[in-house]
Amino acid sequence: MSAKFYTLLTDIGAAKLASAAALGVPLKITHMAVGSGGGALPTPNAQQTALVTEERRAALNMLYIDPQNSSQIIAEQVIPENEGGWWIREVGLFDETGALIAVGNCPESYKPKLAEGSGRTQTVRMVLITSSTDNITLKIDPAVVLATRKYVDDKVLELKVYVDDLMAKHLAAVDPHSQYAPKDSPTLTGTPKAPTAVAGNNSMQLANTAFVQAAILALIGGAPATLDTLKEIAAAINNDPNFSTTINNALALKAPLASPALTGTPTAPTAAQTVNNTQIATTAFVKAAIAGLVGSSPEALDTLNELAAALGNDPNFATTVMNALAGKQPLDATLTNLSGKSVSALLQYLGLEKAFLIKGQYLPASVNLNALGGDDAFGIYGQEVAASATSGKNYPEQDAGTLLVLPAAYNGLQVYLTTGGHIWIRVSLDKTNTKWSPWYPQLTQTDLNNGLATKVNISAVGTAASRDVGTGSGQVPDMSSWSYSGIDRGWRKGPDGFIVQWGYDAAASGGASGSGTTVNLPIAFANKMVSISAVFDNGSPVVPAAAASPINSSSFKLRCSESTGTFNFRWIAIGY
């Protein structure tokens, strides 16, 4: 019949015992756990790492070698009466790291707790068979465990046997108290001690070192350690039996504290320059005070005689200087007003604040191009991040480039030059920066070169091969449909009628309200002038603003912001 109840080492326990035997480091089994097995009697398994249903884990009460079998180690745990309320069907031993070393099952036993109306203290034992008990540390913590009655009785009996044996040996000894001195003429060793007698005691009581030291201290009256013997005092007075006479003769050579008449070269500590009391002033203090009086003047002016000579020996020097100043021209009010002004304030005072409009700055991603219009925005800006040039900020395309904000009708003209070589132009349509024309792409040499380099596959153009050449409806335009004329003043016309014109003209002054100068276009637009703008082009240090506005399809009005003079402007017009 196979065993129903048994205990076995787990794989972890077997490995740890083997390691303990190989390395010589004993295994420390410290805790025992009991469990209910999940409601049924479990079968121990060497691969287990925990009980099926652990109910209680606590430190071992005892861990000892079986007196009847030296190959067996008995682990014992006591469960007090106030713990329970569950069945005990499984037990396990754990080492100091919490690893399950051994596991076993046992006959089912219900452990009540006192609160249920019935309580008992229950002892649970596990027997662990090992080839060498040296591989297991047999040690428990007596502060955290309960002891069985048998364990206590065994310890009491063991202690009684030890005490009886010790007392028998003591009584049988010839001199059991050899550590004690006899009362009659004892010879003490080591560092014997006795109570300290009261100061002034004069009896047969033992005097210890504290009593003697106190008596000597009272004798010398608290003298320092270097003068607490007659020899030290004699040495202190230079072994002079006439010490008093010697001292009095020496004092006769000293100056009194009251009104002393010093001779030779007496010295004293130099006071700080801030001191102002009865302390003696040394020559160093006086020299420093004089240096402070003349304010660290140069050597040529560090005496009153030199200062008087520097003032022309004039006792009324201040009056002389004031009379001389009275004959001078007062400081000009204009120069006073300009004193301390910043560069921008000086330019504004001189009316030149519009002469320096090149911004030379990069546009952050948050700037909307619709906001860059008017006098304060004219200039050149850079956009170095292509991702920031979004349509949401009203850029013509998402590419890094340079933005020119130039004076023109309403709030100006914007030209955007991309790093990819594209040119875009648009104009302001009101004074509030809320209305702008669409961005118009400008034809570049690259566009022309790319167009000329494109080869047309005739088989892929459908009916284009059967159409007539011309500019009419349904016709294919030839290169003569692209017309061009002029250099400084000229125009370019596409086959769809789109025309770009440019020029270089002078505009008379007169300000924004003046009559301006009428400029005739090289050719008239067939339908409408869409955009016209002008920028200053002159070497003059004055940078006037220009305004260009259409008159009709063949001319426009060019005005200059300056009130006098004539200035040259370059202009560009777009239409169809």
Automatic annotation (TrEMBL):
InterPro entries: Gp53-like_C (IPR054075), Phage_Tail_Fiber_Structural (IPR051934), Phage_tail_fibre_N (IPR022225). It comes from the Bacteria. It holds the Pfam family Phage_tail_fib. Residues 1-150 form the Phage tail fibre protein N-terminal domain. Residues 495-576 form the Putative tail fiber protein gp53-like C-terminal domain. This is Phage tail protein. It comes from uncultured Citrobacter sp. The lineage of its organism: Bacteria, Pseudomonadati, Pseudomonadota, Gammaproteobacteria, Enterobacterales.
